[in-house]
Amino acid sequence: MPWFVIYTKSKSEKIVANGLRKKNIEVYCPLRKVQRKWSDRIKIVEEPLFRSYCFVHLEEKERALVFDTPGVVRYLFWDKKPAIVRQQEIDVIKNLLNDFDHATIEALTFAPDDKIIIESGAFSSQEAQVTATQGKQIIVKIESLGMFISIDTTKNKVKKIV
User: Fold this and answer.
1) CATH number of 3-104: 2.40.480.10, 3.30.70.940, 1.10.10.10, 3.40.50.2000?
2) What is the mean pLDDT of each run of 10 residues along the chain (162 residues)?
3) Which residue, of 27, 37, 140, 157, is most buried by count of CB atoms within 10 Å of its CB?
4) What's the pTM?
């Protein structure tokens, strides 16, 4: 049985996961523990590693069973077919969450016009603006140098500037 990727309403990942479990559908919603600070306290909370995504483990013919669960929007598609995640990849995510400090784990996506700071490599400490993305490659413009560069985000550390 494959793992399919479900796209959920914003901030509904845990609600969707609980609803699917109640229907005896195997679901995985990877959660990371993060520290949140309020004016009167600091608390450790669990938040989804992948915003608006849950993984369901079911047969192709059972895919429609998820749609009467509140918060489910649609399946994620890749190449006009439902996106499938291998068990090996789910295991890697589980091991990552078990073996590493959750404060160091973040699933980043970049979009044009995002402001970033390059934290490693030849352009370390440079601020840049994302102009395009191609998978794990991002094309950025470094205004101070007047140049565009391509960065492989699997080999270089970059951080979004909020």
Assistant:
1) 3.30.70.940
2) 92 95 95 85 88 93 93 90 89 80 61 84 81 82 78 78 78
3) 140
4) 0.65
